[in-house]
Amino acid sequence: MRPVEAQDLDLLAGWFGHASFAEYWGGVPLSREQVARDLGAAIQETLPDGRIERVQPYIIEYHGEPAGFLQQWSQGEDECGLDIVMAPAYRDRGLGTDALRALAIHLRGACGRRRITVDPLLANARAIRAFAKCGFVPERKWPDHPDGPSLLMVFRG
Fold first, then answer.
1. Per-residue pLDDT for 51 more than 60?
2. Contacts of 50 (CB under 8 A, 6+ apart)
3. Could you give the angle at which helices 125-134 and 95-109 cross, rounded to 10 degrees?
4. Of 7, 25, 42, 141, which sits 20 to 30 A from 59 (CA to CA)?
5. What is the pLDDT of residues 75-126, one digit of tens each?
6. So what CATH class is 2-114?
């Protein structure tokens, strides 16, 4: 994994502009402008309730080739969430599972995050299985999640 850089914008725009990539990431392909605004770099914003949210995006590489996208978002010093999507050619190889597990272990150990979560859509059985392999366990169903009915899972690995 490596942090997203400015030169990754074309790659990310191509990925997130394709329906198969966006299927479980909001469900709608993103325009290049949306990708540049939302995924192109680390961001920090103040949420309506006053909390600060920080987002750090990463490119997952396999043998030097971009294979997927992973982002970490943090609210405060103790809690963070992870989101991941793999390029279709790199799915079902365990690469996303390995990257997610490595980042979760790093966040818990080196960064002291006590609570690490993922929130896959209930319809995304592949992601739920992959997250379980990484050490995430279901905490609760989240029927009113902004992206659709989801499952909140917490890292226990």
1. no
2. none
3. 50
4. 141
5. 777 888 999 999 989 988 999 999 999 999 988 887 778 899 999 999 999 8
6. alpha beta
Helix residue ranges, H only, 76-148: 95-109, 125-134
Pairing assessment for the beta strands 115-118 and 79-86 based on DSSP bridges = parallel
Domain ranges of the chain: 2-114
- Selection from 63, 62, 80 nearest residue 72 by Cα: 80
CA distance 45 to 51: 8
* Residue found by looking up tokens 């690995």 in the block: 157
Whole-prediction pTM? 0.85
Cβ neighbours, 10 Å, residue 156? 12
Given a cut of 80, whether residue 42 has pLDDT beyond it is no
- Angle (nearest 5°) at CA 48 between 43 and 53: 30
| pLDDT confidence of residue 28 | 87
What six digits make up the tokens of 40? Answer: 């192109």
